[in-house]
Predict the structure.
Amino acid sequence: MAIRDELTTWVALRSVEGVGSVAFKNLLSAFGTPRRAFEVTAKELEQTAGLNHKTARNIKEFRGWERARAEVERAAREGVTLITSNDPGYPERLRRI
C-alpha cells in the first residue's frame, strides 16, 4: 500500500465491506491504527482481530482510496473537522461506548 494520510486510512477502513463498528473496534484494539490494519496479512487480520476470511480479504483488496481521500478533502473544504477515537479531542464518554 502506498503511504496514505492518517485520516484517509480511518475513512477507508470504515468503508470496507464487512467492517462495522465491532470489527473496527477489534482492528484498532489489535493493531492500534487503521494504517497498521491495512499493512498486516489477511491471516493476521483473521487470527488477531477475529475477522472472517471475507472481511480480511476485503481489507487486503481494498481499492476505494480515491473515494476515501475525496471524502476527507470534502470535509476540509466544507470546514468539517474529522476526529478519530485516538484523537485527544474525542469525547471520553463516547470512547467508552
Remarks:
- The chain has a mean pLDDT of 93.
- The radius of gyration is 13 Å.
- The CA atoms of residues 25 and 49 lie 9 Å apart.
- The chain is about 60% helix and 0% strand.
